[in-house]
Design goal:
110 residues; alpha+beta; Ribosomal Protein L22, Chain A; three-stranded antiparallel β-sheet; 36% helix; 41% strand
């Protein structure tokens, strides 16, 4: 049985979050948490919180053994893009795209 946790509208681009998500896919939960703790990426801290939430869901809702859990799937989808404008000289403007993403992590017992 797969137990999931989802974070919507995380404030970073999906491309950057996928780099970290690909590293933990298929790993045992303990090893994945260790990898995320020592990663210097911004996405690692965000994904670690989602993974801890998925572990808590499995432990509380399904009475799963935490030592037997494995990260079965990780997917990162693009969220809404906030469009902002920065004023420039001579009445011109720079467009700023603040990208967001949706992170979903599923854990399953071996």
């Amino acid at each position: 049985m797969e137990i999931s946790a989802k974070l919507s509208n995380a404030p970073l681009s999906a491309q950057k979050a996928r780099l970290v998500g690909d590293q933990i896919r298929g790993l045992p939960v303990e090893k994945a948490l260790n990898l995320l703790s020592f990663s210097s990426k911004k996405a690692a801290a965000i994904i670690k919180k989602v993974l801890e939430s998925a572990i808590a869901n499995a432990e509380h809702n399904e009475s799963a053994d935490v030592d037997e859990l494995r990260v079965s799937t990780v997917f990162v989808n693009e969220g809404t893009t906030l469009k902002r404008v920065s004023a420039r000289a001579k009445g011109r403007a720079n467009h700023i795209l603040k990208r967001t993403c949706h992170i979903t992590i599923k854990v399953a017992e071996n």
